[in-house]
Amino acid sequence: MRYLTDRKRAVGKGASGTGTEHHWYMTVSAWALVFLVPCFIFIFGSALGKSQAEVIATFSHPFPAIITALTFFVGLRHFAKGAQTMIEDYWQGMTRKIAVLFVQGLSYFLIACVLYALGRMVLIGLAMGA
Question: What are the boundaries of the signal sequence (predicted)?
Answer without folding.
Answer: none
